[in-house]
Amino acid sequence: MRLAVKSLNRFVLLACAPFIGAMLWIASADIRFTLSADAYPAPPDLPPFMAAGQADRIASKLEQAYEIARQTAASMQKTVELYNKTNAEVRQVVRVSAGLAGKPAAIYDRRITRKLGTPVQTVQSDKITAQLFYLKTHHFQSYALKVKLKSPEAMTMVLGEDRFGGAETTLSAAQRYNAVAGVNAGGFADRKGVRYPLGTTIVDGEYANGFHPSEKDLFVVGMNEEMQLVGGKFFRKEQLDKLNLRFGASFVPMLMKNGSALAIPPKWQTSPKRAPRTVIANYKDGQLLFLVADGYSEDGRSGATLREMQILLKRFGAVDAYNLDGGGSSSLVFNGRVVNRPSDGQLRKLPTHFLFFA
User: Which residues form the Phosphodiester glycosidase domain (predicted)?
Assistant: First the structure.
């Protein structure tokens, strides 16, 4: 039994000897181990609001944002004040400029009005200013109608009885349309007892009877969409279409262009030499001027020559001028009455009339 125990102890000692020796060696040896940084996992990132000292930094940022907002608000306030001040100054400049812009126009209007004399009647509204003058001329009595159009609705041209081939007096047309003034327009031709407008006639932007090329000094004159007096000789419809006429009539001859008198065709210098006349013209500011001369009366007033009408137009400052139908056709109506003295003893029935509205 004792032998068995000794044998067992000896066996255990021999089996454990290597481990005991290794333990003694490790304990006596100076062994160090160095681990890399990768051997230590980084701690998870903390939320910004949980970071150390973050509250102080947030407070600092908030203070900076508040200061920036305050400065921005102050800057915006100054900008608004500057804008309001500038806007007020601009409005003042506009008012002054408008006044200055209107002043030369008013001066020009006074100048051309003074040349005509003192108006005997005036109609003024937000659509029109129409002034009637009795002119002081030799050999004949004459009248002037100066018109400032403020609206496209202030002027039109109508056919007699509102139909092609119809005819009526200017007074009748003015009364039918409740117009404040009326003047005879283009020439006419009688065929088989019917009175037709001469040449090209435009009403409400449409050709009343097609386009007729200019011949024998025949012109077309009327008003365009911009309320400007335009006219001339036209040999192709495309030429006239470009003017965008709202209305227009034809007659002969043209008297002035760009302030200069035009040569009068020989036939119209003598046929007739003196006669009642109607002329339509414009000023450089766009106002219209109608001149009407009496004639064929028993008291020695035999009418005007076209050259005399040119002299009057030049004297009054007209730019472009066109001779309208004259003789017994000359008609001037203002405020419901006939102003001129028709050479036929009464107004003639005509196919076209210029009318004006207040």
Answer: 177-357
In a domain, residue 291? The reply is yes
Residue 4 CA, distance from chain mean position: 132
Instruction: Specify the pLDDT at position 185.
Output: 98
Position 35 in a domain: no
Asked, for residue 177, whether it belongs to a domain, the answer is yes
CA dist., res. 136 & res. 143, Å (int): 9
Q: Which residue has the tokens 């009054």?
A: 316
Contacts of 176 (CB under 8 A, 6+ apart): 168
289 neighbors 197 (Cβ within 8 angstroms): no
Separation CA 5–CA 1 (nearest Å): 6
Q: How many domains does the chain have?
A: 1
Is the pLDDT score of 146 beyond 90? yes
| In contact, 351 and 165? CB cutoff 8 Å | yes
Contact 215, 239 (CB under 8 A): no
Residue 155, domain extent: 120-338
What letters, b where the CB count within 10 A reaches 16 and e where it falls short, cover 139-152?
A: ebbbbbbbbbbeee
Pairing verdict, β 352-356 and 219-224:
unpaired
3-state class (DSSP) for residue 75: helix
Helix, strand, or coil (residue 298):
coil
Identify whether the C-beta of residue 184 lies closer than 8 Å to the C-beta of residue 174. no
**Range 25-32 average pLDDT:** 49
The torsion region of residue 242 among left (phi > 0), alpha (psi -120 to 50) and beta comes to: alpha
Query: Rounded distance, CA 314 to CA 321, Å?
Result: 10
Q: Mean per-residue pLDDT for 2-27?
A: 50
pLDDT category at 64 given cuts 50, 70, 90 is: confident
Question: What's the one-letter identity of residue 267?
Answer: K
Residue 227 lies in a domain: yes
